Amino acid sequence: MKENAGSANQHTTVLPFILIEMRTTHYHYPNRKAGQAAVSIFSTGYILWICWIHHVTGMWVYPLLDHLTSFLKIVVFVASLVAINVFYVVGEILNSFIWDKSRYVEEKVDAKNKTD
After folding, report:
1. Whole-model pTM?
2. What pLDDT, in 10s, does the model give residues 8-31?
3. Which phi and psi angles does 62 have, rounded to 5°?
């Protein structure tokens, strides 16, 4: 049980750094369809990799999957694809909220003036 608690702490420890990075770095997102397609392809590859590891070793990298029926595994995998796409859109919205166009234009003009 302690391993799981430690793992959860390690995963949430990066949150402050993600928020700092979001505040200090403006990202140029591709159009939404292309971005979600890329995230979906990556996620599908990760899910396939998890299944491949189970096929080769007979063990699931996430022990919870060992207790689920095949149908529930599919539900979990589809839910994870949906969740990652929701997180992508939320990140895009937060990025545009934090970096409104007027502020971004001002910084772009300042950067251009520095190079001239």
Report:
1. 0.68
2. 556 667 778 877 887 788 778 889
3. -115, 105
Any idea where the domains of the chain sit in the sequence? 2-115
Encoded amino acid at 87, one letter: F
Distance between CA atoms of residues 113 and 95, nearest Å: 25
Q: Is 28 helix (H, G, I), strand (E, B) or coil?
A: coil
Query: H-type helices in the chain, by residue range?
Result: 2-13, 15-24, 32-57, 70-98, 101-115
Cα within 13 Å of Cα(109), Cβ side: 6
Distance CA 74, CA 80 (A): 10
Q: Tell me the CA distances in angstroms from 41 to 46, 53, 71, one per residue in order.
A: 9, 18, 21
Three-state SS annotation for 43-66: HHHHHHHHHHHHHHHCCCCCHHHH
Q: What is the CA radius of gyration of the chain?
A: 20
* Residue 62 vs residue 2, higher pLDDT: 62
